[in-house]
Hints:
Shape: extended
Largest sheet: 7 strands, mixed, barrel
Low-confidence stretches: 125-157, 175-180, 517-543, 674-699
Strand order of the largest sheet: 5-6-12-15-14-13-11
Radius of gyration: 39 Å
Helix content: 25-40%
Strand content: 15-25%
Distance between the termini: 103 Å
Number of helices: 21
Mean pLDDT: 77
Amino acid sequence: xxxxxxxxxxxxxxxxxxxxxxxxxxxxxxxxxxxxxxxxxxxxxxxxxxxxxxxxxxxxxxxxxxxxxxxxxxxxxxxxxxxxxxxxxxxxxxxxxxxxxxxxxxxxxxxxxxxxxxxxxxxxxxxxxxxxxxxxxxxxxxxxxxxxxxxxxxxxxxxxxxxxxxxxxxxxxxxxxxxxxxxxxxxxxxxxxxxxxxxxxxxxxxxxxxxxxxxxxxxxxxxxxxxxxxxxxxxxxxxxxxxxxxxxxxxxxxxxxxxxxxxxxxxxxxxxxxxxxxxxxxxxxxxxxxxxxxxxxxxxxxxxxxxxxxxxxxxxxxxxxxxxxxxxxxxxxxxxxxxxxxxxxxxxxxxxxxxxxxxxxxxxxxxxxxxxxxxxxxxxxxxxxxxxxxxxxxxxxxxxxxxxxxxxxxxxxxxxxxxxxxxxxxxxxxxxxxxxxxxxxxxxxxxxxxxxxxxxxxxxxxxxxxxxxxxxxxxxxxxxxxxxxxxxxxxxxxxxxxxxxxxxxxxxxxxxxxxxxxxxxxxxxxxxxxxxxxxxxxxxxxxxxxxxxxxxxxxxxxxxxxxxxxxxxxxxxxxxxxxxxxxxxxxxxxxxxxxxxxxxxxxxxxxxxxxxxxxxxxxxxxxxxxxxxxxxxxxxxxxxxxxxxxxxxxxxxxxxxxxxxxxxxxxxxxxxxxxxxxxxxxxxxxxxxxxxxxxxxxx
Length: 699
C-alpha cells in the first residue's frame, strides 16, 4: 500500500497455486476463503465511494504477465488488474474468472512484482530499491547486476530465509515494531470485513462571523459534527433490454383537459398553489420575491439563558455543528475561548440566529459550551419554531384507580430497568463501559441495500438473498443484558398477568372480500356490530393508513375515518362535502357518478352514527346550489337514486317526517317539470320557425 495525499494505492496479492484448493472434508478451501476476503474488501471500497485505487496480482498462474518477467525470472505471476478505482467488473473477475493454477511460483517474487507495480504506477517519495538501482533481499547482500530492472533477480540459495527476511521487513514497516500484529487469519479477516464500510465524507469548513450585538464580532469556522446520512438518490430509469440510460428519452407534455387533449407549450403554463378548493396562480417571479433574503451568512447571538431552560426534547434538525475560532487568528481564539468558559462557569447557553447563506431560511438554535482536554468549541443544535411543536392532551394516570400499581409491581419494574442497563460500571477501577455503543453500529438500511445491489450486479437472474445474520444481530440486545433480565422478566409476567380476550368474528367469505354488497331501498337503522367495525375489502388493503378524505376514493376514505374514529364526523363530512362540490364544478358525468357515491355513503354513515342533522342540512344546501349553478340534470340523478332527507322512521334523532321528505321530492319534481316546460316552449318555437321557412319555398 502507498499513500499520496488522501488517496491510497493498494495491491492485492493472491496465491492461486493448486495447493490452495486442498481442504478438509466439510470445510472451505483456502482458495475460496481468499476470494471471499478479497470480495468483501473490494465491495467495501466500492460502496464507500473511496478514491483509493486497487490492483490485483496472482501468483501460481499457468501464464506469466508482469513487467519484471525475464527468461527464468518472475515466472507464473500475473498482474490481473492494474491500479484503478474498484468497480463491479473487478468483483465479477474475482468471483468467476480467477481459477486455481497448476504451476509453482515464489511468493517473494510476487511481493516484488507488487512493489514494482506501486512504484511504476504511483509517485512515491522514495525508491523501493537501492539508490543505485539494485535491490536488497533482506539480508544485506546486494546483487551485482546493475543493468537489469531496479529489483533483484531471483536468487536460488537460501530462498526461504531471504523470503522470510523480506516479508518481515515489509510487515515491520507498516506500524513500526508492532507491524506484525496486522497479520490476520482468513476467519479474522472475514469478521473484520463483514460490515460494509461507511461512505467517507470530508469535513468542509463553514467560515462566518459570530456577532454579539453590533460591536462584538468573532471570526469562527464551523464543521458538521453529526449529520444524518441518507441513501444517495442514484436510481434512474434505463432500457430493460440494453440497460442503458441513453436509450430512453423522457419528455413531459402539458395538455388541456378537453376532448382533443390540446397540447400547451411549457412557456404558456404557470404553477399554482392549491388553497382549499381554489388554485392561486404563482409565477417564478412571485416565488423569487417571496423567498426570504438575508444579507448572507449569519451566526448571531440573540441572547443567553440558563442551560436548564433548554430541554433536550426540543433539539431538532438533522445536524450538529462544532464551532471553532478561525485558524491562525489569535484574537478570535482568545475571544471565543473566553465566551466558552464564561458560559460553562455560569451554566448558561447562547440562543443563536443561524443562516447558512443568503438563500437559506434562518434558524433559531442553541450553542452550548463543549470543553475537552484536546480542544474546546461551541456545539450548535437547532431549536423548533411554534409550528414545529406538537401538543397532545392525554388523561392522567394518577387519578385513575384502575391504573394504580402496587408496591410489588413498582419494585419489579425497577428491577427490570436495572437489569437491562446498557452501562456497565466497574466500581474498583472506576470505569464505565457502554455495552451498546450506537455510534459504532452501522445503519442496517445501508448494509441491506449494499448487500442487495452487490448480489443483483453479480447474479442478475437469482432472487435476492436474506438479510445477513450479523446485521440482525447488531440490533439485538447484548447477551449479557439478556441473561441478567431473565429473572425480572419472569417476575413481571407473574405480577402482570395477561388474559386472552376472545372476540367472536363473523366468517368472511370470498363474496365479502371481492364484492361490495349494498342493499337496495331505504336502509333501516341497525346496531353497530363487530363485523361492521372491521369492514374488510381489497381496496382498503391498498389504501393503507387513511388520515383524511382524498379525491381518489373519497367515499371509502370517509367511511374508514368515521368508523375508525380517526377524526370527528363533522370534520370528515366537511372534507367530503368539499370534494362533492369540486366534482360538481367539473360538470362532467363521470364526476357526477363519483359525487353520487359520496352522497350515498354520507347518508348511510349519518344514519349509522346518528348524525342525520348533518346530512339533512347538506342535502338542503346542495339543492340550492344545484339550482344556482343550473345543474338540474344532476339533481335528476339524485331523485332517481332515491336520495331523500333522513326521516324519523330511519333515525329517531331526525325531525323530518315522511311527508316532508316527500314534499321536498315533489318540489324537485316541480323544478324538473318547469325545466321540461321551458324546453317544450323552446322546441315549439323552433318548430314554428321551421314551418315558416318551408312556406318560403326553401324545402
